[in-house]
Write a structure and sequence with these properties.
The protein has 134 residues and is mainly α. Among the domains are: 25-65, no CATH class; 68-118. The chain has helices spanning 31-42, 50-58, 68-94, 101-118, and strands spanning 4-5, 8-9. It has a two-stranded antiparallel sheet. Strand 1 (4-5) and strand 2 (8-9) form a beta hairpin. The longest helix has 27 residues, at 68-94. The chain is elongated, with a radius of gyration of 19 Å. The two termini are 20 Å apart.
Length: 134
């Protein structure tokens, strides 16, 4: 369940009932089969997300290869976004007039767009998507 913060629902929006996934499939593998599957998933950067890799593969969504340097940049920019969130929170608590809220929002949107481009997402970031300054 998602958490309400100041009247806003946070997290992924709820899907309509016909789009919700409610079935789980379990498969037992030998050590060799598991190692081969992990190696295959690692070729597209999904070594730690084997279930997601299998879903994408079977639903004809080609898992995209995300270069290691892009993943590194993604995490570093996440720290920058966290710093911006801290600045925005401090500014609102202390009512600092020097910080332009609109400028901060535009900066957040630009940073979100850069982070999405790093992982090859072709969808534009929408306002209010995910956490503040993600």
């Amino acid at each position: 369940m998602t958490k309400l913060v100041k009247g806003r629902r946070r997290g992924r929006p709820e899907l309509p009932p016909e789009q919700r996934r409610s079935h789980t499939i379990s498969v037992r593998l030998t050590d060799a089969e598991h190692a081969a599957l992990v190696a295959e998933a690692a070729t597209v950067g999904r070594a730690n997300e084997i279930g997601r890799y299998l879903y994408e593969k079977t639903s004809n969504q080609i898992p995209r290869r995300i270069p290691a340097i892009n993943r590194e940049a993604w995490s570093r920019l996440g720290k920058v976004a966290g710093g911006l969130a801290t600045i925005a929170k401090a500014a609102s608590i202390l009512n600092l007039p020097v910080l332009d809220r609109v400028l901060l929002e535009e900066l957040r949107d630009e940073l979100r767009g850069v982070r999405l481009a790093l992982i090859g997402s072709n969808r534009p970031p929408s306002r209010g998507e995910g956490s503040a300054l993600q």
